[in-house]
Every structure is written in structure tokens, then in C-alpha cells.
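Hello,

Following up on my earlier ticket. Below are the two sequence lines again, exactly as submitted.
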Amino acid sequence: MLKQINIGNKLALIMIALSLVVIALLSTLFYVQFDTALQERVMLQLSSVKQLKIVKIKNELTDRMSVFRDILDNPADALIEQNQIFSHLQFYDSMPESIMGLNLNTSSEDIGDRVVMKDITPENIDFEITVALFAKTDDKFLVAIAEIPEVQDILLERTGLGQTGESYIVGSDYKLKTKSRFFTQNPRSIEVKTVGVLRALAGKSEEDLILDYRGMEVFSSYEKIEMSDIKWVILTEINHQEALFPLEQLRRNLIYILIIILVFVLVVSYFLSRMIVSPIITMEKNLMDMSKGILNKVIHSDNRQDEIGRMFRALEKLVIALQETVVFAGEIGAGNFNAEYKPLSDEDKMGTALIQMKEKLRAFKENEERLLKENQRSILNGEEKERSRLSKEMHDGLGPLLTTLRMNLQAADLNEKTKYAILERLDETIGEVRRMSNNLMPNVLVDFGAGEAIGNLLKQIEENFSIRVLYKNDMPAESDIDDAIHIALYRIAQESINNAIKHSKATELKVSMSEFEDHVGFFISDNGVGFDQDQSTEGNGIRNMKERVKLANGTIDIRSNKKGTTIEVEIPLS
Amino acid sequence: MSKIRVIVVDDHQLFREGIISLLSKNDDLEIVGEAASAEDLFGLLASTSPNIVLIDISMPGPNGLEVIENARSKYPDVKFIVLTMHAEGQYVVKAVRNGAYGYLIKNADENELISAIKNVADGKKHFNSEISQLMIGNMAIEGESHKKLSDREMEVLTLVSEGQTTKEIADQLFVSARTVETHRVNMMKKLKVQNSAELIKKAAHLKLI
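Thanks for your patience. The regenerated structure is below:
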């Protein structure tokens, strides 16, 4: 499935996933750290509030204690102080069971020589913190009872405790000594046997997250308060929920931030991936085009130096190279085997193959041309041979027969007049045979070469047509030029002379034959009307001439205008 | 006066027979042999010592003209008369140059044939007016030249020395401009010079112009 997602979306997905992971990690870390720090701070706060309260409570208790001691030392002051601090102060001879309805539960043995302070709060129906103080003087016992509402005040002092924070005191009987902030019922009926109380009673002074008497999760700071016979535990607590409210807030904020970042990352990754992917899409399009054989110019910015830039330059090179290859292949297709092509590298298989193909085709074409030439040559040679054979037959076979006949006729016993008439006919016949033989293949051409044969031909022309002929023959008498070349030159001359006579309306014909070391030149020029080379249907004459020249590997140059026609032919010797 | 001893050489037996029967009628002539090829002839020449050989040009093996040339030094007394179908000047000229005493076309009259044989036997040469015309027509281009330069080159040289351009020379000699250039280059090669000015100087020095 992943394979079907395009690169842009993949990139975006990766970016989003990465940023999500990073944000989640950071958030978690931050959250945990904040949580820890917050808890520490809450505990510290609770601890200091508790300490403050302990100090205050102890002060209150110590105050009572010191006043009690003063009275003990100066019993005279006792009456003054009585109503201010103590609700009851009196010397007793024996330890009373109860005072003012309050059970003291204390025996003289319990007191000994000490000044004893004892918690009698459970005896007080008003729920006020109440302590009893005892001391033995001589034979008497000084007993004082003091309600200490200040303790409740101190505990209710809620500075630093927020909405749910409370401080309370629990006795060693696990009963709540002070008012609960949450329950209005008699605190004494509420049992507080929480972990905090147990630990504090065990002597520990610490802070922890525990369940309070309500079953609520609270941060609690607890410590034992011990003074004389009083054994209390003070707990300062705050609801976990409230204490960690900032954490809640933080979490919400973090989620908002997360969402904002997510949206941001989404947008940015979309554009970023598009930016990264767009050249790849362009390239994909280019490659698709290339796969369809469309070779468009690769458009890209030259200044890109990264992999994509290099990729584009490589693609551009590839396109140019392919275009060259296409041009090259086209040239080969069009038969231009001189087309040049440089392989892209030593491993350019296609280029090498094309060059090989070119060479093969060139060889093939050359071979074909050679074969064609040979073929045409052999056809022409055969034709010429046949003409030569026929010409010889007539000249050397028929000719002598006719001349023999003539001799016989001359010797015959005939009427002179008849004899001469027949002889004349016979001479005409002999002349005709000679002419025919000559037309087929002049003997002179075979025995004396093209220069002489063309000369003879021109002589006949001059005799039979009203045209002035100028002929220069620079062919040596003894020439070792191949017969085929002589024949070719003679035929070319025949054609060109024929054309001049038939079509040019010329009055003068200049012809020359020149032999050089490496070539033979034939030149013919008339002062006729010329012909249009472009429009000329190239009647057999000119085409035959060209064909002959080509087969002899020579060159032909035909120039014609209204003042005449000039043809130059050069046949190489070798 | 002894008879003129004649050999007839022709590869056509019928023609030989015709000629022989024609000549045998004449008392002044004696046919001492006949041959169908050059090979046969050379055998006869040694054994029959003829005065006159009537010979055709076209034959299998060496042709008549070659035979004349070969026999000339070996049998200086034997006189050859060409009797042929070839009525082109080139053959006549070559026959004459090779040492033939006469040249006849095969459809010549009996009388002319006889008189030609007799003339030649007398040490004269026999070329009738028609043959003479052919000969003269072709002699013109057979100018003997032992000079360093060919005739055509001499022409070109003369025109060059007159200060004519290649194009003008080509027009006058009705050859192509390229041909004129080739002639010029060939002359410079032959006279071992580098340019046209030097060519004219050297030619003047050699008294070619």
C-alpha cells in the first residue's frame, strides 16, 4: 500500500510523523518534569504551612504550660490568671476524678514530680481543643483546664491551602481532634486512620500522596506533635486534583499547542514536499515523454547544485544525446552514411550499435552499388560485345561474300549494260553492309581507339549535315587505354553529337579529345539553342551518357543556355 | 619478261578462289600460293619468293597490317598490297606506314586490281584517288613530333605566351578550361618549372616559341 502513495505524500507523512513524535516526546518530558516540580512545590508548601502551624500550636501549648508553671511558683497569681487563660484552676488535695464534668482519667501516679499536660478534648462537648494541666506541690495537686480555641483558629488559617486545603489534628486514638472542613458532624466521630497518621505516629515527618479520611487522593504533610502527655498528629493536606490543577491546564495548553503545531506541520510539510517533489514530477513527466519517444527540451534552473540539479543536467544531456542519436539514425535512414556520431562513452551500446549499423549499411550499400555497377557494366559490355560480334560478322563475313559475288559477276558473261547495273546495285549493298557494320561498332574504334573513331564520325556528320565541325584529337596513336573506356567515350560522343545535330540547331560544333596521364577528357560545345536542364526530361541521350560516365567512374558536366551547350566528360585511367 | 609471282592471303576461301580465278586469267600473273592466315603466309614466303602479296587486314591471329610490318625487314623484296573491306583513312595510313605498296578496297574493279599489281611490281606505289583522299585526311593528325612537348601543348604554350587567359585558350582550342590547365601543369612538369612566367622563359630559351 505504501508503494502506491506518491512521494509528495510520503514525504509529508514522514514529516508529520517525525514532528508528532518529537512533540509528543517533548510534551511528555515537559509534562513529567512539570508534574514532578509541581508535586515538589506542593509538598514544600504543605510542609512549610504545617511547620508554621506546628510552631504556632506549640507556642499556644507552651504558653499555657509556662503560665501554669508561673502559677505553680507563685500561687498568689493564680486568681488573676484564672479566667484569662484557664477555664478552671484549682488546688486539690487529692486528684479529682473529674472537673466540671470533664473526666480527667489521671491518677497521682501518672503525674509524679512532673508538670503534666494532657489532652482532654474528647471530654469537651463543644469540640474545643481542651487540655488539662497537672502538677503536685507538697500535698496538693494543682489542676488547670484550658480550652485552646486558638488551635482551631490556627488550623483554619487557610493561607496557602487553596480551595480544598485543610489542616487538622488527629489524636493517637485516630480520632479527629479538630473540625473537618468538609464534614460538619462531631469530629470525634470521625476516625482518621490514614497512612499519614500511621506514619506520623511512627515518628515520620514527611509528605506524600495518600488517601485522606474522606477517601480522597490528597497531598499530605504530616508530623507528630508531642508535648508532655499530648500526642497529636497534624496533617496539612490539599486535594490532589486542585494541587495539580496547573498541570491540567498545562496539559490542555499542550494539546492546543500540539494541534496548532500539527496544523502548521501539515501545511508546511504539504508545501515543502511539493517544493521537493515538483522537480521530481517534472522529471517524471520528462521521462514519461521520453518513454513515448517525445524528446522535449529539459527545462530547469541552472543554478541548482544538489542531486536534483545534477539529475536534471544528466537528463538534459541524455535528451540532447538522444536527439543527436535520432538525427544520426535519421541520416542513416536517409542514406547519408557520412553522418558523424560520437558515442557518449565507451559503454554507449546504442551509439556503438548505430555506428556499426551505419558501417554495415554503408558496406551493404556500397556492395549493392558495386554489384549494380558491375551488373550494368556487364550488361553494357555484353551489348557492346554483341554489337562488335554482329559488326564483325557483317564486315568480315557478309562483306567478303558480297565482294566475291561481285568478282564472279564481273567475270560473268553478261550483257555489259546489265552487268554494270547489277554491279552498281551490289556496290550499294556492300556500302550498306559496311555502313551498318560501322553503325554497330566501327572497326576503327576497335583498332585505332575512340579518338580516331570520333574523328570519323564527325567527318560523316560534316559531310551529311550543314554544320561546321572542329575536332581536335589529342589521343596518341598508340594508346593502351582499356577498350571499355574507348567504347564508353565513343558512345558518349555519339550521344552528345546526336543531341547537337537533332535538337540544338547549331551551326558549329567543337569537339576535342585529350588524353593525360591519369584521365581522358572529352569536350563538346555547340552554338545552338541549348536546353533547359531542369525541365529537360533527360531523354535517353543524356541519361545514357550519365550512366556511361558513372559506370566508368568518371565525371560529367553539362552546361546549357540559349547560346549553346557544353558537355565535359572526364574518365579516370587506372 | 617473267611473270609476276603473286600470293593471295585471305581467311575467306571463297574470296581467295574468286581472286585467284580472276587473276589467273591474266598471263602476266602467276599465282604461286594462297594462305588463310599469317602463319601460313610466312611458310610460303620462304619457299615461293613472291613479288606481290595481296593481303587482307582482318584475319584470325596477327592482322594483315602487322604481317606487313613484320615481313618488311625479313623479305624486303616482297611487296604488299592491302586488299580489304576497311575503307577508313586510319587503316590506309597505318598500312602505308607499315610498308604497304598499295591499298585497295575489296569491291575494286578487276582492271584496277590488275593495274595495281602491275604498278607495284614495277616498283611504284598504287593508291587511287579515293584512297589518297582517305590517307591525306588522316595524315594531318599524324604529324611527326619528336619535340619535348606535344602539338597540343605547343599550341597552348603559344597562346599562353601571347598572354591569353585560360578561358580564351579553351575557347580557341575548343577544349575545357580544365584541360587547358592540365596541359599547362603538364608542360611545367616536363620543363621542370614552377609557374607560367618561368614556363615561357624556359620555352623561349629552348626556342620552342
